[in-house]
Design goal:
With about 110 residues, the protein is an all-alpha fold. It has seven helices and no strands. It is globular, with a radius of gyration of 14 Å.
Amino acid sequence: EILSGLVGSEMCIRDRSNMNIYNNLEPKRKRLLFRARHRGIKEMDYILGRYAEANINNFSDEQLEQLQYIMSFEDRDLFSWFMGEVAIPKELDIPMFYNILNFFSIKLPS
């Protein structure tokens, strides 16, 4: 399970060790990364935060917009879609959503 390693102390250590990532980002990417790492629920902090940390430096403008669009949805809904508890709505049938799933090797039910 992707969230099995989600422990408060691990998140604190990871947060401190990756603070340098903020220093090297343009303001738009910096704001988006901050929002990805500071969601309403810890599970989404983990999913969107880890994904953004690993990829934000390489995103095109279009990818940044797609991530921002995904983050406009409610955390509980996003979590249900990422975990395959509820079918993904048509409006999220975009490459970025599937990139996040692939990043965590999440296989949705057919």
